[in-house]
What does this fold into?
Amino acid sequence: TMNPATYDGGLATLTWTGQDDPGGVGIQNYSIYYSVNGGEFELLASDITGNTYIFEGVPGNTYEFFTIAKDHVNNTEALKTKGEIALIFNGRIDFDIKVLLEGAYAPATSEMTTILNTSRGLLPGQTPASNLASPTPAGQPYNRPPWNYAGAEGIDWTDADYPAEAVDWVLVSFRTGIQKNTEIGMTAALLLKDGTVEIPETFTLPGGTNASYIVVEHRNHVGVMTSQAINIVDNMLRYNFTLADGYDGNGTGSGQKQLPTGEWVMFAGDADQSDLPSYDILGSDKILWEMDNGNFDYYTSPDFNLNGDVNGEDKAFWFENNGISSRVPK
It folds into this structure.
């Protein structure tokens, strides 16, 4: 028999037991078959020598599983037609989040640039357009200090995995309160040129979540947070950061920047993201720009306008926003 031991969000740990017929040579390995929402059974994994398997499912789906055992002389159990267990993942909360990066945004087109993606090939895992450029290692870019987020989003991505609309990666987290220690979920996500944040399908919030603050971070912009917890309505968490200012500590700091054309955007110029207790644009950010000034074809934090080059255009963002101080707790 096969039984789910534990599962949390999109993960389930499957465990099972089995034994050979009396006088047999013993079980060599197992194969697992599964079906999704009552569909046909397909092979999930084979040659499993242990008795556990970590399965990543999509919330909202129902899965059925069975195992097929093989002994040490390759006698194989007959294929089954019915599942031995049904595993239901909690319904997924859908997300509709929009945010704009000042450095990448062009008010004339109401879109952000996709140069790093479509022209330079510098997003993590892509093959650079220039033979002289070094590829950026695959995987979401927040797996290092100060974020230290260990998520596997994009870990095996290549050019083929990026849509043409992709601008860059952002880090999205959810809190029940203002403070960081109320965080209930975090994921890396693609940011598209119209501001859409593409939350991975395998990510969901804990069951019973009714409302959440939303925090969006970017590797060279000041992080933003909603001014209040946003209610989840009809299994949808929806918020558009471009329509209003974000959390500003009741007027004691800066939330977002409003452009002359009316949009609210994330402040560009925060190359040094190690600020505490919140995000600031200071001299330390300019120092990083000075170190990289003149470099091109790199995926680097002082490239505030996200075009693959570090030059005076980037410094202009730092100069205009120098002194900005956020109140979003890290």
